[in-house]
Design a protein that fits this description.
This protein is mainly alpha-helical. It is built from 18 helices and six strands. Helix 4 (121-128) packs across helix 6 (160-186). Bound molecules: carboxymethyl coenzyme *A (CMC).
């Protein structure tokens, strides 16, 4: 990134006036456009950018993505190398501290996380209150948010020591909350953390332990899950990181901000996509149905879930790593017919002009669902696994935002397109049109089939 400041010369054709706007790091400051006015009463020019497709909301030193080239680096280290050589907790440390830990630093960090995995017993009662088929992601949003009520010290976001404590708590406890949510949904008793196990190993213990005295995770699956967490650990200013930063910018505590980030991740266009990939593959059913499905996608009737990305216009580098670990996992679990279907779907899509011309490639979610399913996770748990992996990234983004002297409370502008001031309409003079619309929408909603969980 260049420090050199150059300028942009803009002529406002409404007034004929010319302005110089500084360019730094390939960007102009939207606030600099405000000086471009028709007259003194004019508010000044704004930048209109719904969904922030071309707006940098912050300066960040955490994650670098080159979507054209398919590059992803955390703090400068390529994702492929981190996935191959580091553990998830090591990567979490890197994202938060900015450097890879020394042996001693890593040992202390692992020890801290391990000793914060317990949650208050009241949380169990809280989870018991959910309906038996409550989506675990809904439970996770609520319980992570509820943690703020147990830790009032979390409000002191300007205290570095207390900030670090909440960071440790969130990374440690999210696995426990996720596992408890799952155990509740299947009606199994909750399993306490086992401090002898690794981060991923303990998570598997809390999920799957039955009557055995000591749960022993399969080392291949434990490693695969750890790598999947690494691949999800951060992805710069995505929808959920943006939610984390936006809520954090109001100086809310990190548990509340993380609950908002999890809520953002819940959506099918973000972390919910891997769940949708599996539903899609089941709907397609077998390879001979792929062409008909692709035709529907091209007609705009369906989306090819797990394909396309706002930033990557090339193969998602995370999807490449996942393809490799899929082989290791399937050696243990046995292969899945959905894997063959997914590979055939990918092959056909990558040869099709529709996908080629739009530069739509598989993203991280295309294969994760199939691996998770082979490992025994129900589809509702897929976005939960994404949330566990993403927690260190959200926290790094949150803390970076708080420490950035340029950040203020997030508060975008709008272009108002509604009515100007108009006379109030008394009840007796109102038309029926709006009420009829509401009735029609309610009738439609009542007819719609409820989206039943897929197991
Ligand atoms: N299937 C079919 N067409 C697609 C798809 C898709 N998955 N994705 C994009 N397109 C088309 C889109 O219709 C548009 O076509 P046209 O130019 O004819 O209007 C063109 O490609 C450009 O797409 P876009 O909607 O402008 O792209 P976007 O940056 O707004 O959307 C996306 C990115 C990820 C929301 C979108 O690609 C999508 O909905 N993909 C499926 C859901 C998915 O897999 N999400 C996981 C993303 S990776 C995990 C994460 O980081 O959260």
């Amino acid at each position: 990134m260049s420090e050199q400041v150059s300028t942009l010369t803009v002529t406002d054709n409404r007034t004929g006036r010319t302005y110089e706007v500084p360019i730094k790091d390939g960007a102009v400051r939207a606030a600099d456009l405000r000086k471009i006015k028709v007259d003194d009463s004019d508010f000044g020019l704004m930048a209109y950018d719904p969904a922030f497709t071309n707006t940098a909301s912050c300066r960040s030193a955490i994650t670098f993505i080159d979507g054209e080239a398919g590059i992803l680096r955390y703090r400068g280290y390529p994702i492929q190398e981190l996935a191959e050589k580091s553990s998830f907790l090591e990567v979490a440390y890197l994202l938060l501290a900015g450097e890879l830990p020394t042996r001693e630093e890593l040992a202390t960090w692992e020890d801290e996380i391990t000793h914060h995995t317990m949650v208050h017993e009241s949380i169990k009662k809280f989870i018991d209150g959910f309906h038996h088929d409550a989506h675990p992601m809904g439970m996770l949003v609520s319980t992570v948010g509820a943690l703020s009520t147990f830790y009032p010290d979390a409000k002191q976001i300007k205290d570095p020591g207390l900030r670090r404590l909440q960071i440790v708590r969130l990374i440690a406890k999210i696995t426990t909350l996720a596992a408890y949510s799952y155990r509740h949904s299947v009606g199994f008793p909750y399993v306490y953390p086992d401090n002898d196990l690794s981060y991923a190993g303990n998570f598997l213990n809390m999920l799957w332990k039955a009557t055995e005295l000591k749960y022993e995770p399969d080392p291949v699956l434990e490693h695969a899950l750890d790598v999947l967490f690494i691949l999800h650990a951060d992805h710069e200013q995505n929808c959920s990181a943006n939610a984390m930063r936006a809520v954090g910018s109001s100086e809310a505590d990190p548990f509340s901000a993380a609950a908002a980030a999890i809520a953002a991740l819940y959506g099918p266009l973000h972390g919910g996509a891997n769940e949708q990939v599996l539903r899609m593959l089941r709907e397609i059913g077998s390879p001979e149905n792929i062409p008909a499905f692709i035709a529907q996608v091209k007609d705009g009737k369906k989306k090819l879930m797990g394909f396309g990305h706002r930033v990557y216009k090339n193969y998602d580098p995370r999807a490449r790593v996942i393809r490799q670990i899929a082989d290791e996992v399937f050696k243990v679990t046995g292969t899945s017919p959905l894997l063959d279907l997914a590979m055939e779907l990918e092959r056909i899509a990558l040869e099709d002009e529709y996908f080629v011309s739009r530069r739509l490639y598989p993203n991280v979610d295309f294969y994760t669902g199939i691996i998770y399913q082979a490992m025994g996770f129900p589809v509702e748990m897929f976005p939960v696994l994404f949330a566990i992996g993403r927690m260190p990234g959200w926290l790094a983004q949150w803390e970076e935002g708080l420490l950035d002297p340029e950040q203020k409370i997030a508060r975008p502008r709008q272009i108002y397109i509604g009515h100007g001031e108009r006379p109030y309409v008394p009840m007796s003079e109102r038309s029926q049109t709006a009420a009829e619309d509401v009735d029609a929408i309610a009738a439609q909603a009542a007819q719609a089939a409820p989206d039943r969980p897929l197991r």
